[in-house]
Each structure stands twice: as C-alpha cells, then as structure tokens.
Amino acid sequence: MASSNASVANQSLKGLVNNPGDNNCFLNATIQVLWHLPLFRNSLSSLFGHYCLSGKCVFCALKTLFIRLEKVDKAAIPPDVLRRSMSDAFHTQDRFQLGRMDDAAECYEHLLSRLHYHLAPDTEEDTCAHSHCISHAKCALSVLEQSCCGCGEQSEPFGFSQFVHYVSAPAITSSVMANKAGPALSFGRYIRNATESIGSQPCSSGCGGHSATRRYLINSPSLMCLGVIWDSETVPVNDIMLFVNTIEETVTLDDVFSKVTEPSACGKKLHLVGMVMYYGLHYCSLFYSRSAKKWVFFDDSNVRVLDDKLSTVKDLCRRAHYQPLLLVYSDPNAKSVDFDSAPETVIPMSSDQERKTLKTCPVVDRSVTLRRSLSSATSPLRGGTNPLAQTPAGIAMPATCVPIQAAPTGPLIDLSSIKPAAVPRQVVEPSAPPISPKTPGSCQSRLPRPDR
Prior knowledge:
- The protein has 15 helices and 17 strands.
- By secondary structure, the protein is an alpha+beta fold.
- The chain is globular and about 60 Å long.
- The N terminus and C terminus are likely disordered.
C-alpha cells in the first residue's frame, strides 16, 4: 500500500530549493499554493499568448517553473527563474529582492496582480471582466463594503476586488469565547462576525449606536484565499489552537459575507485544499493532493506525506506552533478559464503598458491598508508597514545566512527541451522519521516540538 501511494504521489509532489542565504521560503510557499490548485495550474498551462516584459516577465517565469515542476525528474526544483523575475519586476518598489525575506501573503497577491497585467494590461484590476484573466476570472473576490447602523443610517457602498480576504485571528477567537454558551457557529459565521466587529464605529447620525461593516459578495469565485492576521509573531499554542480548531473543511459563501448577490454563489460551498503557515521567520505549506488523496507537508525541499484527515493538519500546528497565514478554499468543480479572449501570440509590452505594469499594484495596496487596520503592529506576519520592504539590508539574518549572489541563472527553458521523468522519485511517507531540524529563527526548516 505504501509503495502504491508513493508511486501516485511521485507524479506531482516536488519540493523547492532554499539554500542558506536565499530566503526563498515565502516564495516557495506561494508557488506550492498555485501549483497544487488544478484550476490555476491547468489554466496557466493552456495559456501561451500574453503581453511580455522580457526579463521582468512574471508570466514567462511562472510558466517556466511550472514546466520544470512537471517535467524535471528531481526531488526539489530551484525557484530561481521566478525569484529573479520578481526581483527585477519589483526593483523600483524594493520588494522581493534577492536574498531578502518577504511576506508570503503579499507575494501571492503581487503575483496574481502581475499576471493580470500580462494578460490584460489595458484594463484596470477593479474593472477586469476578461474571461481569460486567471487572476480575476477565478481567484478574485468582487466585494461591496458598507457601514450600516441599526437606526437605518448607511454609508455609500464602496466596491473593490481582492485576492485575499483578510480576517483577524484574535477577533475570531474572541467571537468563539463570547459564543461559548450559545449554539455552535460555522467557521464562515465566525469570519463574518470578526469582519463586522472590526469596523464598528459610533453612528454618524448621532443615534448613540454603532455601525458595523457589511461586506457583500457580488461575484461567484472559484477560489477564496483567507488571510489570517495575528497580533504577535509568538502566539501561545493555546491561542493558536483556539483559532485552528474553528477551521472547517468547507465554508459556505453565504456564511462568510453579509450578503451574496450573485445567484450562482448563493449556497456555494468551497473546500479547504491548502494552508500557508508561519513560525520563527519561516514559511511552509500544507496541501491536499488529489492524486495521493492525502495532505502533504511542504517545507522547501522537504516533502512529507501525511494522511487524509484535517485533524492531522491541526495536530501538526499544535506540535510545531505553526500560525496559519493563508487558508485556501476552492470549488472542486471549477473549470479552467475561457481562452476565447486571450492573446493568440506573445506581444511585447508597449512603454505605456510597461509603466502601468511596473507601478504599485492598487489591489495589493488596498490589502496592505486593510491589514494595517486589523493590527497596528508592524511585522511581515501581521501587516502594517513591512520592515522587510523598507530596510535595505532586509531582516537580520543568522551569520550562517549569506545573501545570494546575482549570478545568471540561464534563459527561460524551451518546453521541447525537457522530457518526462522516467525514474520514480522518493517521497517521505507518514511512517518516516521527522524532518531534520535546522536553526530556529532563520529561514530554514524546523522540527515540530514535543509536547510540553
């Protein structure tokens, strides 16, 4: 049985390289999110025509990396081609630079934003309705936000798109504690309660009441990525588990949002398929593999097959003190994007399109502002002013971590030059010994702690 499982898992389970000093873990976790979403992976593999930005083209780099993950017979693939393209593309913003740590949630958002401009550069993100744009056709939530009071006073609704729906972990746990004596609520309802409580302010009408933030979903997304904001980088394990234990395998969109206006989204359930976690300046991820029918733990180049139980995932968070940062919910019946409106060839970007593409991404800027409102602290985990983006030298790293050199990594690969792997690859099975520990506090793997 174990041999059969390994044979199935070998087809798609690969790690990503993170050598000392590379600090790739935030990018590796993001890549695993996108790679293990069949909806995204299949859509990207079918798209060829795009507006290309040469060496700064994130679209070309991501496609190249996906081809290597599929075709190259190695246990771990270097993410250098995407790391370099991200560094070049965001050079003027001083983000995602070589050798520096950065934020995995913002990396995910920026990647989707860049893909939009490579597929539909003349359309603003908030108004994108192109059926071939993976970012907005499949991964974006279209939301109307409004402040409402019981007296009837309402603000003007504000519409926007978002790739990550942020929620405060302390607000959810407070809701859980306040509801102990009442009937059990779904995870989606806790998310909604937390969202509505965060924006509560005295009513502008002077009625003496407080307004609450209402969010209305106006599209039917195939994917919902929940961003979890914590008030500390070292949260006690009991507080972590109070949040983790509220996580459920499915969420209903009607529970998460105050109202769902799109008929096809009413009653729609999304399934938990992945999670990005954080501990000690290091990111890792968990994803449910459809081929192996098991949860798989990805810690850079280390791949560990677990089982099919969400309880095992939660127990790993308890033992390793992992704080969930991103929760990925997906529609298992979602189809790939419609390619009818996609560019048929590779089109070099015009100078005007390039300027628009390389500017600050408005959708991500709005998310950063929201994260600041959820927590006033400044850290890469909790949002606010990201010190990793402002400190020229990046974060303080252990003496063993040396920034990588700007050596060329070679051109983007040609699909015809790579042949399918013929040799089975070894994947760690559940019965294997724990992953080898490395230095805590650095961008490296760590061993789940024993219970104390």
